[in-house]
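Now for a chain:

_____
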Amino acid sequence: MTIRHRDESARPHQLSELTSATAEIVTTATLIVKASGQGFTEITDDAARFIAAAGAKDGALLLFLRHTSASLVIQENADPDVRADLATALNRLAPSDQHWLHDSEGPDDMPSHIKTMLTGVSLHVPVADGALLLGHWQGIYLAEHRTRRRRREVVLQFIGTRR
């Protein structure tokens, strides 16, 4: 399929030079995160330490959360008000006072599952020259949707080349 612009000389987007490599390693570890209740726990530094320990050069970091009432997100890491507003928005989308059918672990049980469905349990981050290719204001967070303290497991896996 060819995409044509009205003015072929004016290209609004620019694609960088293509690079490729054959994966040499697959390295996996599990990160234990002790979430102190509903909110966001930054794990960017943990992911970077994993990349360094794996001897990673170029490839992809895959992150997978082994739970259904918390999630993984990439969000702004500069202003904590962003995360507070995000928590407020999620609580408005899935409030705990709606008398959900599934409430075997309390009123925050079903809302937590809904929030996880909306935000997801897996991420992937490109890695180049041993560094996570996150944007300037981006951080990786575990979003805890339950109100009580929880122990969460995040599987980290790097697939790519070695330093």
About this structure: The beta strands are 25-35, 39-42, 56-65, 70-76, 122-128, 131-132, 138-144, 150-162. The CA atoms of residues 39 and 87 lie 7 Å apart. The two ends are 38 Å apart (CA to CA). The mean pLDDT is 94.
